[in-house]
């Protein structure tokens, strides 16, 4: 029986090549999208899951409630991890690390900037990285050791044995390589080249170990399986508060590793998701695209059911019951799905490098993995069953008497469902296209937002102790090149906020509330170099008095509700006078409002030298001029630089990635729709071939004939449009709500999409109708 | 074998109700060859469809081999049909996508005959119908007479007790038509009951008995001698 089904299915495909190609093409494209999306989603969901203990690893976090604003802070004090260890039976291990830092690493004249974590002894017992050589846990107990990744080892030592070699860090201390491990996989939160132990004998670490304020480390705990996390949180909160009685604003708790990547966004102390939204969105898009392709199959199958009706009638007469027929038609759709799937897998293989570039990942298709095998089965069965469901039920319900008598007009009763399906397809396509445009407009809107400074032709060079020492001479030499307009230095890059705290004390500060301030140290010429507008007062003025003044931004003035900020006294550790108010500058997320900012003069804590190239100076020529100056004064270090506009652009990486992917998928969705439309149109024409001939004889023009056929489809598009517009409006308005600065959806957008879809429909239908409309009517009439 | 009593069948459209069969009563015995005749619209085909369990009556009784089948559901009808009844149509009704061999094999598949047994029986019947040499051709590659032979081969391959033929020669020239009638007569002589709807007095002469219908009722029965 099965053999018979396969035979019939295969012959039907071969005999109806147009039908087969249309369906296979649509399903293949749909499946390519689905496979890519699922690979991407799998990679996102599998983030950090390679750690054996991932279910029991947590990061300690704090909710810091500066009334009325609340922020979530992963920064912890250094002694917390050690103190938590052994104090609670549910906590198995703890570890503390520095933030990821970039350091100059040197071996035999090879100098490279490499990423490094400083980590405590239990780090490798909590986290599972693949060890290639040595014993990393032992290495972390010896402050003279360092652990290196495979690729970093290759970069420094080539094929030589890395173990026990000495590398020098930041031109200071040398460390012995005590272990080598495989590079962390692409979906690891920790990304690094080196891991270095804490040196508990150093004065710095000794002092920090006594310090229970000033948080700048990450603390991790591994619990027993099924630990009571509420109790663990309570314990951690108690330990921290026992040691810092003054901390009235913080609540401490644990955040599970399984959520680190997908749920990384916090608002007002609550987790508001993160990448998970895109994971969900793309899963939905994958299913929608596959459904659109399935609908093509349903429509074409029922449209040409007249051709199958006779077969159904004969089979029923010969004793087939409905169930057997349904099985047969499902077989056909599943075979089609299988063919499409095999093709899709081949294309996914070919397109994988392109897709990896697009999404900046290193995905691969492992055909023999259970995930892939089960996934394939699900995709094929889903597609086959969904696509085959309606045709199977429809075709198998034919009455053999009517069919064989020829009085049965097959396909007629399926017209309405078919129209509904076409409308559904177009609703989804219009939605995807409109949404894509809205996402793009929103990103542009944010990019066009005034950021309060001029990021173009602005260069940042990371500072070092040599640079700091020779800053005055460097600045003079830079200005002497004639290419540089201004130079300053800052404690963090202008594109990042490294420092947040409560507000300074000031007259009129509310007793029970606080305001979160961002902070920055800067040198003279700060506003000149950055191109920031001073709204009131002045910049630092190169006098000793600079150390006692502070600049604040407009947001600070508004948050503190100050009437005359200039000249006001602020107390932040010591006394400052507000010298000037600057415009709001976007240093953090361009999607969020600018927070209050204070800047005070402290040239000795610089991390970046900021250099403004004169107008019209070619950036590469500017860099050429900078390089010898920095090499001269900072010979030990590599010359590195960043263009601020590029650094700022990185803030859009995720959104632009999402925008690119949705562009492609929306385009493909509409393409699959058009294939289906073309199929339906050519089928309609086949059925109306004689009518077209008669009309032509009666004097209809080609244009009139094209309109006749097109109108049938254009009506459906109009209905789809009427449904899609409010739906898109509702969904996208909701999405836009998460941005403080967002566009309002324009009616013109829908008008444009509407015209585009109508035109596309006209073109697709006309191309298919043209042949019939141009044909000699005698031919069509004779063929009857 | 067949006993129908007061059988009624109506066709309804929004405005008109047409009576296709009007309290029809008739009997067909095992081994008979019966021809049903009458003008267009007299209910011949409706009767044949009900006899073949492709359609069910609105009123009345239909006893097939001692079993009342008038209100069987589709599944039961299909089951009874595939084991007992073979069909021959005016327009042959072969499946275009299947070869001659595969078309004839189809009823055996539905009755669950094993593959090796199927090959044996299909070859046997094709041989008997003298179309063995065409076994791998598709229906479109055959003449009308050949197609009807295949259709008859398909109808008899399951060794049914009853063959229902709906104007089996209607699409054939007289020579091919005679061949088909000879084949049916042979089958009848070997014990198969045959009920044939026809317009052709010539064809009807091959039967034992002619039932003439008018407006859904039996108007006359001729016994052939």
Question: What would your notes on this structure say?
Answer:
The complex is a heterodimer of chains A (784) and B (225). Chain A is α+β, with helices and mostly antiparallel strands and 784 residues long. In chain A, strands 17, 18, 19, 20, 21, 22 and 23 form a seven-stranded mixed β-sheet that branches. In chain A, strands 4-5-10-7-9-8 form a six-stranded mixed beta barrel. In chain A, strands 1, 2, 3, 11 and 12 form a five-stranded antiparallel β-sheet that branches. In chain A, α10 packs parallel to α22 (653-687) and α15 (415-447) packs across α25. Chain A is elongated and about 105 Å long. The model of chain A has no long low-confidence stretch (mean pLDDT 88). Chain B is α/β, with parallel strands linked by helices and 225 residues long. Chain B has one domain (31-53, 74-223): P-loop containing nucleotide triphosphate hydrolases (Rossmann fold). Chain B is built from seven helices and ten strands. Chain B has helices at residues 44-51, 74-84, 100-110, 115-128, 144-156, 174-189, 201-204, and strands at 2-12, 17-28, 33-37, 59-64, 67-68, 85-88, 162-166, 193-197, 209-214, 217-223. In chain B, β7 (162-166), α6 (174-189) and β8 (193-197) form a beta-alpha-beta unit. In chain B, 48% of the residues are buried. The interface between A and B is medium-sized, with 26 and 29 residues. Chain A: The chain crosses the membrane at residues 20-41, 278-300, 329-351, 371-395, 420-440, 664-685, 705-731, 743-765.
How many strands of chain A? 25
What is the distance, rounded to the nearest whole angstrom, between the alpha carbons of the first and last residues of chain B? 22 Å
How many domain modules of chain B? 1
Number of domains of chain A: 3
Largest interface: which pair? A-B, 26 and 29 residues
Number of continuous helical runs of chain A: 26
Major sheet size, sense and barrel closure of chain B: 6 strands, mixed
Under CATH, the homologous superfamily of chain B reads: P-loop containing nucleotide triphosphate hydrolases
- Rg of chain B, rounded, reads 17 Å
β-strand amount of chain B: 25-35%
- The averaged pLDDT of chain A comes out at 88
Helix content of chain A: 40-55%
* Helix-residue proportion of chain B: 25-40%
Q: Please tell me the overall pLDDT of chain B.
A: 89
Number of helices of chain B: 7
Indicate the CATH class of chain B.
Answer: Alpha Beta
Order of helices and strands of chain B: EEEHEEHEHHHEHEHEE
Q: Strand content of the residues of chain A, in percent?
A: 15-25%
**CATH architecture call of chain B:** 3-Layer(aba) Sandwich
**Alpha-beta content class of chain A:** alpha+beta
The coarse overall form of chain A would be: elongated
């Amino acid at each position: 029986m099965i053999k018979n089904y396969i035979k019939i299915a295969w012959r039907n495909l071969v005999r109806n090549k147009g039908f087969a190609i249309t369906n296979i093409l649509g399903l293949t494209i749909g499946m390519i999208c689905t496979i890519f999306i699922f690979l991407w989603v799998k990679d996102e969901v599998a983030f950090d899951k390679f750690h054996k203990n991932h279910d029991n690893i947590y990061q300690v976090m704090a909710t810091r409630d500066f009334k009325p604003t609340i922020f979530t802070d992963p920064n912890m004090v250094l002694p917390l991890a050690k103190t938590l260890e052994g104090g609670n039976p549910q906590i198995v291990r703890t570890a503390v690390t520095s933030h990821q830092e970039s350091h100059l690493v040197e071996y035999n004249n090879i100098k490279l900037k490499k990423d490094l974590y400083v980590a405590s002894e239990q780090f490798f017992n909590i986290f599972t990285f693949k060890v290639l050589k040595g014993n990393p846990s032992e290495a972390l107990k010896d402050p003279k050791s360092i652990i290196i990744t495979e690729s970093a080892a290759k970069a420094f030592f080539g094929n030589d044995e890395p173990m026990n070699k000495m590398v020098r860090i930041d031109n200071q201390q040398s460390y012995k390589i005590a272990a080598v491990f495989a590079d962390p996989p692409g979906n690891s939160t920790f990304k690094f080249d080196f891991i270095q132990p804490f040196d508990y004998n150093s004065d710095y670490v000794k002092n920090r170990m006594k310090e229970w304020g000033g948080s700048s480390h990450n603390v991790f705990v591994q619990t027993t399986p099924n630990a009571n996390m509420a109790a663990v949180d309570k314990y951690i909160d108690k330990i921290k508060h026992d040691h810092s009685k003054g901390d009235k604003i913080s609540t401490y708790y644990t955040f599970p590793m399984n959520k680190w990547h997908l749920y990384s966004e916090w608002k007002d102390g609550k987790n508001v998701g993160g990448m998970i939204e895109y994971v969900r969105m793309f899963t939905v898009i994958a299913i929608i695209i596959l459904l659109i392709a399935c609908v093509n199959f349903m429509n074409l199958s029922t449209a040409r059911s007249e051709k199958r009706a006779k077969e159904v009638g004969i089979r029923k007469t010969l004793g087939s019951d409905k169930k057997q027929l349904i099985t047969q038609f499902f077989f056909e759709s599943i075979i089609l799905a299988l063919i499409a799937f095999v093709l899709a897998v081949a294309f996914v293989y070919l397109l994988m490098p392109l897709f990896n570039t697009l999404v900046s990942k290193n995905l691969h298709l492992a055909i023999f993995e259970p995930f892939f095998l089960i996934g394939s089965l699900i995709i094929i069965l889903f597609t086959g069953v969904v696509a085959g469901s309606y045709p199977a039920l429809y075709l198998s319900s034919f009455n053999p008497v009517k069919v064989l008598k020829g009085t049965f007009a097959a396909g007629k009763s399926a017209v309405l469902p078919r129209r509904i399906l076409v409308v559904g397809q177009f609703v989804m396509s219009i939605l995807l296209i409109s949404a894509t445009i809205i996402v793009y407009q929103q990103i542009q809107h944010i990019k066009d937002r005034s950021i309060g400074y001029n990021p173009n032709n602005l260069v940042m060079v990371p500072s070092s102790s040599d640079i700091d020492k020779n800053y005055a001479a460097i600045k003079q030499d830079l200005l002497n090149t004639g290419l540089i307009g201004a130079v300053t230095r800052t404690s963090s890059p202008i594109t990042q906020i490294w420092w947040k705290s409560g507000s300074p004390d000031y007259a009129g500060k509310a007793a029970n509330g606080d305001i979160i301030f961002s902070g920055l140290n800067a040198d003279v010429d700060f506003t000149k170099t950055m191109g920031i507008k001073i709204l009131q007062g002045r910049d630092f003025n190169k006098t000793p008095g600079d150390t006692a003044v502070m600049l604040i931004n407009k947001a600070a003035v508004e948050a503190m509700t100050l009437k005359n900020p200039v000249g006001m006294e602020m107390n932040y550790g010591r006394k400052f006078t507000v010298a000037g108010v600057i415009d709001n500058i976007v240093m953090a997320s361009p999607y969020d409002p600018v927070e209050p900012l204070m800047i005070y003069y402290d040239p000795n804590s610089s991390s970046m030298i900021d250099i403004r190239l004169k107008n019209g100076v070619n950036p590469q020529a500017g860099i050429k001029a900078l390089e010898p100056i920095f090499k001269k004064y900072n010979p030990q270090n590599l010359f590195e630089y960043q263009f601020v506009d590029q650094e700022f652009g990185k803030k859009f990486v995720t959104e632009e990635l999402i925008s690119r992917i949705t562009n492609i998928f929306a385009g493909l969705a509409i393409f699959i729709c058009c294939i289906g439309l073309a199929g339906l149109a050519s089928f309609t024409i086949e059925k109306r071939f004689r009518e077209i001939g008669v009309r032509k004889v009666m004097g209809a023009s080609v244009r009139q004939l094209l309109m006749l056929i097109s109108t049938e489809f254009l009506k459906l598009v109009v209905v789809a449009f009427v449904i899609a517009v409010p739906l898109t409006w509702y969904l996208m308005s909701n999405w836009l709500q998460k941005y403080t600065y967002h566009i309002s959806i324009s009616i013109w957008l829908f008008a444009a999409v509407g015209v585009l879809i109508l035109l596309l429909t006209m073109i697709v239908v006309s191309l298919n109708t043209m042949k019939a409309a141009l044909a000699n009517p005698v031919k069509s009439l004779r063929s009857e | 074998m067949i006993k129908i009593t007061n059988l009624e069948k109506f066709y309804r459209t929004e405005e008109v109700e047409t009576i296709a069969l009007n309290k029809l009563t008739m009997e067909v015995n095992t081994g008979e060859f019966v021809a049903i005749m009458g003008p267009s619209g007299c209910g011949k085909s409706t009767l044949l469809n009900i006899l073949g369990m492709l359609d069910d009556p609105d009123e009345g009784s239909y006893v097939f081999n001692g079993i009342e089948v008038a209100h069987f559901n589709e599944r039961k009808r299909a089951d009874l049909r595939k084991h007992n009844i073979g069909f021959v149509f005016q327009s042959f009704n072969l499946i275009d996508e299947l070869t001659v061999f595969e078309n004839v094999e189809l009823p055996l598949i539905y009755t669950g005959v094993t593959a090796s047994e199927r090959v044996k029986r299909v070859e046997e019947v094709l041989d008997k119908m003298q179309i063995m040499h065409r076994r791998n051709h598709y229906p479109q590659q055959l003449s009308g007479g050949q197609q009807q032979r295949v259709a008859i081969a398909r109808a008899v391959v399951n060794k049914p007790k009853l063959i229902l033929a709906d104007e089996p020669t209607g699409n054939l020239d007289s020579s091919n038509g005679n061949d088909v009638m000879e084949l049916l007569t042979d089958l009848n002589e070997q014990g198969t009951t045959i009920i044939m709807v026809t317009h052709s007095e010539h064809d009807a002469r091959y039967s034992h008995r002619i039932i003439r219908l008018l407006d859904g009722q039996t108007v006359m029965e001729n016994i052939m001698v």
